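[Automated response] Your request has been received and processed.

Submitted sequence:
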Amino acid sequence: MSTANVTPNQYNNSSFFGKLLNKQLHSFNENPFGLMAAYMIAQSCFGSVACYLAITSGGGYIPIGISVSLAMAANAFFIAQFTPKYTLMVTNISFIINGLMMLYYLFM
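Generated structure:
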């Protein structure tokens, strides 16, 4: 797996998300395959719970399609071994969107 070496302050550290991405990239480069498996499992579970809540709440096909597409895209980035920066960005987007969907359908 070709991973880019990430040095501190390589990416935008002025925002919270820049700092978070930099920390994730640093830990991901130390143990890429262990974290790859953990992130794949966690975001797939988030996606499946979001789909379940959308189905049981009668949310329709669009939220289910969004959740499944995000989970599959994140898994595809891991399996295709894209650069860690883009892989973690897609995974974080999947976590955020599916988490928001879970909160919406849980308290709807």
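Summary generated for your ticket: The chain has a mean pLDDT of 84. Residues 32-56 form the longest helix (25 residues).
If you did not submit this request, please reply to this message.
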